[in-house]
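User: I'm designing a mutation panel for Sulfate transporter 4.1 and want to avoid disrupting the core. Could you give me a predicted structure to guide residue selection? Please restate the sequence first so the numbering is unambiguous.

Assistant: Good idea. Sequence first, for numbering, then the predicted structure tokens:
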Amino acid sequence: MEITYASPSSQNLSSSSQRSSSNVSMPAARPVKVIPLQHPETTSSSSAASSFGASVSKRIGNFKRMTWIQWIETFLPCSRWIRTYKWREYFQVDLMAGTTVGIMLVPQAMSYAKLAGLQPIYGLYSGFVPIFVYAIFGSSRQLAIGPVALVSLLVSNVLGGIADSSDESYTELAILLALMVGIFESIMGLLRLGWLIRFISHAVISGFTTASAIVIALSQAKYFLGYDVARSSKIVPLIKSIILGADKFSWPPFLVGSIILAILLIMKQLGKSRKYLRFLRAAGPLTGVVLGTTIVKIYHPPSITLVGDIPQGLPNFSIPKSFECAMSLIPTAILITGVAILESVGIAKALAAKNGYELDSNQELFGLGVANILGSFFSAYPTTGSFSRSAVNHESGAKTGLSGVITGIIMACALLFMTPLFEHIPQCALAAIVVSAVMGLVDYDEAIFLWHVDKKDFLLWTITSITTLFLGIEIGVLVGVGASLAFVIHESANPHIAILGRLPGTTVYRNTQQYPEAYTYHGIVIVRIDAPIYFANISFLKDRLREYEVDVDRSTRRGPEVERIYFVILEMAPVTYIDSSAVQALKDLYQEYKSRDIQIAISNPNHEVLLTLSKSGVVDLIGKEWYFVRAHDAVQVCLQHVQSLKETANAPYPLPDDKLSFLQRLLKSRGEDLSIAELESGAQRPPDFKDTDPKLEPLLYRKS
């Protein structure tokens, strides 16, 4: 739909020109056709309240339409795959995947418990109850949860400053930490707050995990070298302690640990590179444990420390203790919760996409929380999803959560029947399992990629990794998250703004920096704001608009030549939101432009933005006739005003029409028709319309 727009004059535009025009006979205004902009009703309720009410009504309606089966699926996601389980098709692959992950988890759980400063049995406990709980409440069908290296390091780091790892209170605090992490995860899942972690960039996570992997590997050096190394999350004390104790170096644990580590790395690489050898990746930890135990049984080296006695049987129900220390554990609990969201939910979504089902990240977070809460009542320390075990589970063909149940059964069998066999496992074998697992977290490829793609993200990666290495995990995370948020705020407060020009032969307007062939018009600036407008960026936007008014590139301009800017067109299609501070700034900007005889025009604002401008009086202040659907419509109207201003400034005092000769009137009429093309080209002579492509839309419609 198009309407004829008779080029209304601005009341505030060039009062001197208006005075002179009263004494000068001007050509009749040529009508242009523009698409009318639909202005919203300002008498309606506020947009925020109405949208909130609509959202609540929609959610209530969805609840009312839910069947009892859908309610069960909401609270027990496992019912989704139980109802549709295909025993003949799924059971065999689930059994194989669950068994594979279970064989991998038993030695890893003991290794990660040692990393956390706990006895190996607590790693086995953490890989038992939480797995069954997650299979019921978790929504991912391939995610393998249990102890992981990064969380174990965080537990060791914070609890090491509160209690000695040999004390019973240390274990109690680790179990209490699992309860707190579970509560935080459950609350965030119920309140649907998982989106908060999106503000932490991938570069920060990659830098943090890379530095943490290096710290974890160095912390395991004591089991290879045969002497104690200072417990620290900073690289300098670790390296210093390793160097100072070099005179206590022992060859047997170093050789055994190095051989097992080499075998683990070779098996992992073969499992990744060759599909028919995929089982080697999962069998690596078990192979390392068996090999280490065999060497110890045969040679009995005295300098190799062993795991020792491990209690046999399933964990007993007990309520976590040491609640008086809960306040000091809150920062670490929040940090572990963040790691759980980033690791578990991230890999769960990726696996869900690969296997063709939908996953609710908030439900996933709630499932992890319940698993940690109930696990804490059975002596488990904080658990979350594992990258390596989840990848093995997926590659082994797991179809449903039954694979997790089978993994839990294997852990139960290990606790009931196999713990006497674990007494002779060498500590260096468990250390080799940890080191081989964390080597995959050293993401130097990501750093190289960021260097080539985005220097800003590379800087974030570097800042996070260096601060984590030298200042510790907590400070590293805080600095990384702070830097990430600082970049977000900087980008928001300094949004991208583009000068738009018209692509030749079209009515499309694009960034002149991106499309050098795009041309602009004398007296008109078209500015596109590529961000919401709010209090933090309005000053930046006003400064840039003033710069564009002064810094005019005349080399690519067309149309009637004038000496300065008369119109500023704001293309607001990318603007999704505008706040009260921005509204007031627009009013001030309008008054500032008005004092310099410059008119603001606005094109393509969305409904919410236009409603805000209407309620605040900005629409009436600027004038409804200066709001347009397209930038091209605004340019047509503004360009006609520029032409009128130029003709007013240059026109002599002509004779009235009734005193002109017939030939003079004919030439005048012919000149008005031809001046339409001159507006676009800026030519001084009429163009040859025989060469004009009839398919191209003219800038202004000629009179019919």
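For picking mutation sites, this is relevant: The first strand starts at residue 3 and ends at 5. The two ends are 18 Å apart (CA to CA).
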